[in-house]
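Tokens for chain A. Residues wanted.
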């Protein structure tokens, strides 16, 4: 069995131009959905075919339209979706957790009033992932506010303890179904840099909550992904691979378009400042084996871009890992 298996997150396919539209990633919702050009089945069939064409081993489910609920709509069941994936020689490696409800409201893990709804959502998603043969659920934390926001939002210990309690319960609900919960950094979220990882790894139970480092997200937040992973090596269960051109300015405005805006600091593997030889040496040192998830955030030509990244890794990096 290969020590590293390469896959991509469905967000790689979220450029509206790939679907015949225009605009930024957040505009994709205008193209996909009931009555739109791409219904769930045709959406997933194209994504899965493209992933196979790119020469990868699997797929990570993400937020809408490539979420687990749309996969259920398209294929009728988790087993039906898994069969479509397996028919293409692929695997479902993991699933990113979206807490957005069908009515558009975002459940807030920092609000105890939303916890019961989050736990119910996590339980259903974990059951779906288990039935697809996946054993990792990836979760991020809410967005911060801009640093000059009024009133300010402090991610302090009191705030973190409320969230950590919910994460422990979510991890428990996952473990009961044979799935592990891994925290994923986002450059403008509560879990963005080395300090945040230290805080939430301290406050969560290592039996139930793990880590999914993202090389680009840590870099854009101004932290060294290799340093973070060295300190929390015992929590590492899955990895997101993406490059970055540097840290974002500290005064970057954080609003509803930040996920579109942050892509200016991202880059394909090998086109930024991430220490990729050091990353492979670190994974070798840690004896990491498992999924390496290529994430491109709305690639203009996803198949070509994924092939280029895989070729770069194969030709320039894998010999370091052997």
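Reply:
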């Amino acid at each position: 069995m290969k020590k590293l298996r390469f896959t991509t997150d469905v967000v790689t396919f979220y450029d509206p131009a790939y679907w015949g539209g225009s605009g930024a990633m957040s505009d994709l919702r205008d193209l996909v959905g009931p009555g739109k050009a791409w219904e769930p089945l045709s959406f997933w069939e194209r994504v899965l075919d493209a992933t196979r064409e790119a020469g990868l081993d699997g797929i990570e489910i993400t937020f809408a339209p490539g979420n687990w609920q749309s996969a259920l709509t398209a294929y009728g069941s988790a087993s039906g979706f898994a069969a479509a994936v397996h028919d293409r020689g692929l695997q479902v490696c993991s699933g990113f957790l979206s807490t957005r409800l069908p009515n558009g409201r975002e459940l807030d893990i920092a609000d105890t009033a939303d916890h019961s709804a989050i736990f119910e959502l996590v339980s259903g998603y974990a059951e779906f992932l288990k039935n697809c043969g996946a054993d990792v659920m990836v979760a991020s934390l809410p967005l911060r506010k801009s640093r000059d926001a009024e009133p300010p939002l402090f991610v302090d210990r009191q705030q973190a303890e409320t969230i950590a309690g919910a994460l422990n319960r979510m991890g428990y609900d996952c473990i009961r179904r044979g799935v592990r919960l891994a925290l994923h950094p986002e450059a403008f979220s509560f879990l963005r840099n080395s300090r945040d990882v230290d805080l939430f790894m301290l406050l969560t139970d290592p039996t139930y909550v793990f880590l999914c480092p993202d090389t680009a997200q840590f870099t854009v937040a101004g932290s060294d992904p290799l340093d973070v992973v060295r300190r929390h090596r015992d929590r590492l269960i899955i990895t997101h691979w993406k490059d970055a051109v540097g840290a974002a300015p500290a005064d970057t405005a954080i609003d509803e378009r930040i996920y579109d805006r942050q892509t200016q600091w991202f880059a394909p593997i090998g086109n930024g400042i991430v220490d990729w030889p050091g990353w492979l040496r670190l994974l070798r040192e840690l004896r990491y084996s498992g999924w390496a998830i290529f994430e491109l955030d709305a690639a203009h030509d996803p198949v070509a871009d994924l092939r280029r990244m895989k070729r770069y890794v194969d030709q320039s990096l894998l010999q370091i890992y052997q």
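The longest strand covers residues 4-9. Residues 157-175 form the longest helix (19 residues).
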